[in-house]
Amino acid sequence: MFLGKDKFEKFAKVVKVPEMIISFLFLATGGYLLYVIPLYTKALTIKFGLVVASIPLAVIATKKFNKILMVLSLFCLIMAYGMAEMHRASAKKQLTGGTDTVETADGTVLSGKDLFTKKCSQCHGIDGDAQRSNAPKLSESKLGDAEIKHLVRNGKGIMFSFSEKDISNEELEAITKYAKSLRN
After folding, report:
1. Which of 164, 131, 134, 127 lies closest to 149 in space, CA to CA?
2. Rounded to 10 degrees, what is the CA torsion of 166, 109, 144, 95?
3. I need a labelling partner for 124 at 20 to 30 A (CA). Which of 19, 46, 132, 183 fits?
4. What residues does each domain of the chain span?
5. Which residues contact 157 (CB under 8 A, 6 or more apart)?
6. Does the global pTM surpass 0.90?
7. How far is CA 135 from CA 25, 33, 107, 122, 174, in A?
8. pLDDT greater than 70 at residue 2
9. Per-residue pLDDT tens for 22-62?
10. 101-181 architecture in CATH?
């Protein structure tokens, strides 16, 4: 854009089709993730708005060779990314702390809540009742320890399975205790 109109037009012709394919893939995968993991928040709405605003700004900027609109479009994308990073950092802070701890053979204390948050909350939610991707409400679960452990190890439907490489037996015990603590 800043090299000159002729060079820019030549560059735009070369990258037009790959850019359209990549943009479509971003849109398709983003839509799929919103469908599979419906996690609508005010921050998500603002981030989505910034990204959507950046697209027509960039199109107009390229058509009219307007450097100010191009910079504004880039600024919108940078703001959306910055908000995503800030949200991720604040979510990590909120998710720390533990309940239902288990002590391992070497004396390490594992927190069921921390492990559940890292491994299970994408579908079950932090409180166990999010029902994303058709995950059952854990507050209504009647499963015993052995059944919970079997489901975690082997998965069910689209639920991931977690081998001993992914989750140790001590971690599985901590997650089981925490999942049971979410019941009504």
Report:
1. 164
2. -70
3. 46
4. 5-93, 101-181
5. 134
6. no
7. 26, 15, 33, 10, 20
8. no
9. 777 776 776 676 666 555 667 777 887 888 888 888 888 88
10. Orthogonal Bundle (1.10)
